[in-house]
Amino acid sequence: MSLAIVWFRRDLRLHDNPALVHALANHQRVVALYIHAPEEDGDWAPGGASLWWLHHALADLDEQLLGRLVLRRGGSVEELTRLVDQAGAAAVYWNRLYEPAAIARDTAIKQDLRARGVEVESFAASLLFEPWRVLNRQGQPFRVFTPYWKHLVAQGLPDNQAAVDKADIASGVVDAAAEWSSLPLSTLGLLPTIPWDQGIAAAWRVSRAAAEARLDEFVATELDRYDTGRDLPATEQVSRLSPYLHFGQLGPREVVAACRGAGGVALPFLRELGWREFAAYQLYHFPHTSDQPLDDRFAHFPWRDDPVQLRAWQQGQTGVPLVDAGMRQLWQTGWM
User: Fold this and answer.
1) Can you give the three-state secondary structure of 185-226, one letter per residue?
2) Average of per-residue pLDDT across 103-111
3) Which domain holds residue 336?
4) Number of domains in the chain
């Protein structure tokens, strides 16, 4: 029986997950895999709050998969190769990431697996448009947001979604995790050893169901006030969808679809979704901007090196009320 591996990364959902949909449609058996390899993120390794969220998001994904998520810890190349050999996998599928280090790693993995005769394919799940498909009239990447956004709106924001038949999960097409030596989630060490996370735990529900509920609530009750409410820091008229989008518990096409019936009132919010898109777009086309400015004029910006003031800012102790309020909220809830 043909077996495929679906490698989950920051796409921790079943709905609108094209890699999973493709695997279920084309193979008799599927292994759902997550590899914890924070070292591969380099300088962008997740911090404590992100690891806390990841723990609960993985637990929720495993629940959606009826306990069939395979967890591994180690290098992505080594763990994928080992599982391909163990399972006799015919194919490996994943949804794309766009950071420079992820692109380099994924390209190397594709080449290695294809050399072994394994089918490898990646899909678009975390962005509305693939960065290489959006260019200006000169065939060059956009460098300024406004013309970029106008171009996207003219193209039409996509809201088509790939639907998973949950009967395929229940029927046993997705292999049991124990069959492939899955690690217990607790062994990944994602939760803090010192209980500093009470504030975050009180502020968030980390699940696909919570993501859907928050999106529905925002569109129904707050979207029409977003254009003005987002500028008032004392109010909560913002979506609070960012962590769900970051970890892929919610996809951007789902957000566009949810806003579709609101008409023009949704445009200010969708424009902010466009800024998320533009950040990934610029990083893809200008990978040096991970640690260098896009505009060379800012290459020698006079930074202040003062550890004491840095710590005061991090802890919300600068004496500037608005700055301190925001940083204390970030410290307490993991979000600002």
Assistant:
1) HHHHCCCCCCCCCHHHHHHCCCCHHHHHHHHHHHHHHCHHHH
2) 96
3) 302-336
4) 1
Strands laid side by side in the 69-73 sheet: 69-73, 29-36, 3-8, 91-95, 119-123
This prediction's pTM:
0.95
Give the C-alpha separation, 84 to 7, whole Å: 11
- Over 90: is that where the pLDDT of 138 sits? yes
Cα 168 to Cα 17: distance, rounded to the nearest angstrom: 14
User: Is 132 part of any domain?
Assistant: no
Average pLDDT, the chain: 94
Q: Is 160 left (phi over 0), alpha (psi -120 to 50) or beta?
A: beta
Residue with tokens 């410290």: 331
**Which residue is listed with tokens 């899909």?**
123
In a domain, 114, yes or no: no
Residue 314 lies in a domain: yes
CB 253 within 8 A of CB 218: no
